[in-house]
Each structure stands twice: as structure tokens, then as C-alpha cells.
Amino acid sequence: MDGKLSRDELKAIFQKVSNWDDDMIDLLLEQCDYNKDGQLQVREFIDFMFRGAKMEREERGRPLRLVRIMAMHQAYFEDLQPRVTDFFHKHGIKNIDLNYEAEWEKALPYCEENDVDVLVVDSDAIRCAVRDDATLWAERDKWFDKHEIPEGKLFQIMPFLQEIVKKSKNPVIALHPWLKETKSQAACLDRITSQLREWRDGIKEKLKNYGDRLEQKERFQDRISDMEALIEASEAEEKRQKERDIAAFRPLFQQIADKAGWDEKRAEQVFDRLVRGTLYTETWFVEAFTEGSVEKELDKISVEQFPEDEMTVLTDFAFEHNDLAKTVRYLASKTGWDLKDQQQVCHKLRRVGCVENRSLQVALKTKSLNARLKKHKFLPFGDSSLEILEGWASIYAASHSLG
After folding, report:
1. Domain contains 230
2. Do 26 and 147 fall into the same domain?
3. Which of 237, 267, 325, 401 is the most buried (most CB within 10 A)?
4. Which tens digit of pLDDT belongs to each residue from 201-236?
């Protein structure tokens, strides 16, 4: 024995034990034969079956907890759960690593008292209760010293070890074969063979599901890569668009700086604050300053506020630069609205669709303005203000030859 099995040798072994077909052998090789040499090595098979335990230990960075080690006892034999829990509690076993010999000595009395034979398998070594001749134990064999099984010897005890490994429904942490009340070695083998027949149909689905999960992971990784590429492209385009918007906004801002008489240094400071406050397009600038949302928006993104004199310059320019805002400021000279009132009027007019003078004139002419405001939960204009607005609408229509 060289610790390797060819496909034909593997098929002969598994067909003798469980009547596996060619498809199941191919599935097993596909999942276990990592180096793709067409042969199954002991280490390949053990790593495949028990990689979950190794990965979990590495991720935790500490020994597995007791409850996980005894999980197979509790899963297979529900009546043992209270006794298992009580025994380890009394003996103060807190954490046990599968490779830590001293802690497992504390389990010896329990196993002897309750006729339990324990096989523990992890991804680094196979440690099991076997006799020196590595045959199945019979009724009176309780517990034997554990031996680390070399790869060559592993296949010498295939009739025992391979069947135990195969029959486990969840061989991630530990396997505990229950070989109690058997009359002979043959009876042990018969019972294991019977269990294998029940489990045989599940191995193909197990391997197929494992393959499906790998494919799903690969597809998921592909989707992640695609999404990351889209995000990267979107961020790059967003950056380019921001640069274009800032370049387009500079000439308008230069008009503000010239009108305010700011020197180059101060103008650049104001411009930088506008950019950091995302007020670097004409639309965003006009709406924010004419609707009074600048301070709130800057505070939301932790950008310092404009000094009062700069705020006045920027606000006045925004009102003068936008026709609707300019109209609201004109109407304020008739109604007595202060700056806050003017900004509130600009805000609610835009929210009900009156974004320019023409749409405001139409809403006033059709007597629909107050109805729109009420629908959108805004206060309607009072009679005196509405009369002034309607007067403006008539003048606007006449000056623009509108009916």
C-alpha cells in the first residue's frame, strides 16, 4: 500500500461495501482529487471530508467548545444527552482541542461505564479506539488506547475505518460509532453495512450539492466582480461629471465675486465652501439660496456656515439670477414679505409646479394655485396676497401678449 487508490481500486472497494455506481465514483474523485492525478490519496479524502473542522478552528483561532465536540453524541443518541452534559460538567472540561490528548483522558471513565466506543476524526490526524490488529471490536471490547493511524495502515483497516467514515451523517467534528450489543464482529459489520445502504443514496446528493455550492460561489464572485466594476465605472463617471459641473459653474461664480469685490483668495475660499457643500451647479445654487436650505444642508454634511456678509451676497445674487425668485422679491415689496417669507414662497411654488413665471401666471389665471398648495400640505395665500399675485399675473400676461 502506498497510500493511494486508483479509480479502479476505489471502485472495487466502494462497490464491495455499498454498491456504488460509476457516477458516484466520478463525483467523489472530482471533489477529492485535488492534484488531478486520477488517484485518491488518503490525505485528499480526509481533507475533503473534514475540512469544515479545520476551517472552523482556524477562523476561531482557539479550540472548539465542548458542546461542539459532543454534538454527535447528542445528535445520534438523544437519551445520552443529560448524562454526557452532566459528566463533563462534573469533571470541569471547558474546552477540548481534537489534538489535545490530556483532556480526552477525562472522557475515558464515561466511555467505559456506558459501553461507548469513540472514533474521533479531524483534518490533521485520525485517532481512534482500535486494537493492534486493527479489526472490528466485539461486544466486550470497551475502550482501547488511541493510536495515530499512518496513511499506509489506514487502508489496511478499510473494512472498519472507511465504513465508519462513510456512514456518518455529519463528519465535521467527531464520529462516535455505537457498537453496543453485538454478538460478533460479523454482526458489527452487518449493522454498519445496513446503515451504509440507507446512507448510500445521500452521498451522491451530498457531493452534488457540494459541487453546486462551489459553482454558486464562483457565480457569486463573478457577480461581485461585475458589480465592483460597475461601481468603479460609475464613481469614475461621477467624478468626471463633478469636474464638468464645477468648470461650468466657475464663470457664474466669477460674476458673484466681481460684484462682491472679493479678492482672489477670499473668492477661492467661498468657492471651495460651495463645492464642499455640493452647491456647484447653477440649479443647486439658486434653489438652495432662494429657498433657505443652505444652512441646513451644510450642517448635515458638517461643512462650516458662510459668514453673514457672504451669505447676503450669495442670496441676493441667487434671487437676481432666477426669474421666479426675482418675481417673488418684487411681490415682497408689495406684500411686506421678509427674506424668510420670500424663501418659503419660492419653495412652495416650485413644489407645486410653478417653477417659472409663466407656470405661476397660468396657475393664478385658472384659480388653481391655492388648491395645489392645499393638496401638497402648504398654507394657501391669504386674500390680500392672492390679490397682489393676481394683479401681477395680469400685468405679466399683458406684457407678454398672453391671454
Report:
1. no
2. yes
3. 325
4. 555 565 666 667 767 777 767 776 777 777 788 788
Identify the bridge partners of residue 6 per DSSP, sorted by sequence position: 39
CA–CA dist 199, 213 (Å, integer): 21
What is the per-residue pLDDT for 161?
45
Domain co-membership, 386 together with 259: yes
What type of residue sits at position 307? P
**Looking at the 3D structure of the chain, how many domains does it have?**
2
* Predicted confidence band of residue 310 (pLDDT cuts 50, 70, 90): very high
- Contacts of 246 by beta carbon, 8 Å cutoff, 6+ apart: 275, 280
DSSP string covering 55-119? HHHHHHTSPPBHHHHTHHHHHH-GGGHHHHHHHHHHTT--B--TT-HHHHGGGHHHHHHTT---E
Chain segment 110-126, per-residue pLDDT in tens: 444 544 433 343 322 23
- Measured CA to CA, the distance from residue 264 to residue 81 in angstroms comes to 81
Q: How far apart, in Å, are the Cα atoms of 4 and each of 1, 26, 39, 157, 214?
A: 7, 16, 6, 14, 25
Parent domain of 176: 4-181
